[in-house]
């Protein structure tokens, strides 16, 4: 079988739809071909394959993954070993961000499945960081090529164990963090950790070795410790520069108009994602975060 796919919009995201010669179960699609289309496009939407059950998403993701990560804020789904989570936080607009790019625990890929789309808005938004980087003004490109950005996070014990495992000890935590570049930290008596992470806003994609402006710069400015976020020398990033970046991003926005049973597979080294605002409390989207095996 040769996988057939179409463009979602003007970007690189591809839609693989169950129809015609492709009228097969999701698990019958050839894994190697999915991998090749994913490497080229960076984002895939599987439509018509009935992935409304989030544990089905997790089972499919396992075919492509070595291990999974978790979001520290989202509730977990029963029967998923804690690695499928409901996307329930807020109903407002979510700015562009790469998942957990503000920490050293950044996963390779995001998986989303739609059980019930919102009746109004709520589309997941995608921004190809490669396209963003190509379109940034030269002075901004020089700024982010030469100066890294600094994030601050605080993790309670039960939160850092989401990344390292529930039986992880303080020694495990120290060994992990001491081996990571750009990380400094302070351990509190209550076993919580205050972490500083210095990293480039520009990453090399996992596939194709492209330069990609895929980071958490936009969202972290609004978070609890966002006031401390700056360039590594402490210089803040001006509102004017943020506005210029945002203008470029809005020019390459792609929308996923969710349908029941849709599944999205997104390269977290290449794409940023976000969300349109919505009012429908019945919206049900689920997520998994994974490290890939190819």
From TrEMBL:
InterPro entries per the UniProt record, alphabetical: AlphaKG_dependent_hydroxylases, TauD-like_sf, TauD/TfdA-like
GO molecular function term, any single one: dioxygenase activity
Classification via Gene3D superfamilies: Clavaminate synthase-like
Keyword Iron in record: yes
One record GO biological process: antibiotic biosynthetic process
Pfam assignment, any one: TauD
Annotated TauD/TfdA-like domain residues: 22-285
Keyword terms of this UniProt record: Antibiotic biosynthesis, Dioxygenase, Iron, Oxidoreductase
Coiled-coil residue spans: none
UniProt cofactor(s): Fe(2+)
Domain of life: Bacteria
Protein name (Swiss-Prot/TrEMBL): Taurine catabolism dioxygenase TauD
Lineage: Bacteria, Bacillati, Actinomycetota, Actinomycetes, Streptosporangiales
